[in-house]
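Subject: design request, 44 residues
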């Protein structure tokens, strides 16, 4: 999703801003962010 896109953009040096229309999406975004960051150590 957009959180993964923002995570990848942040790793290349940009400063992404992700806007959520509803607060209910925050928990899904945190889960995606934690899983994506945890895998980056082994993928890079």
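Subject: RE: design request

Done. Sequence follows.
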């Amino acid at each position: 999703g957009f959180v993964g896109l923002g995570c990848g953009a942040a790793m290349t040096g940009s400063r992404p801003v992700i806007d959520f229309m509803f607060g209910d999406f925050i928990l899904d975004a945190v889960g995606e962010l934690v899983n994506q960051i945890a895998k980056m150590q082994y993928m890079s």
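Helices lie at 2-11, 25-43.
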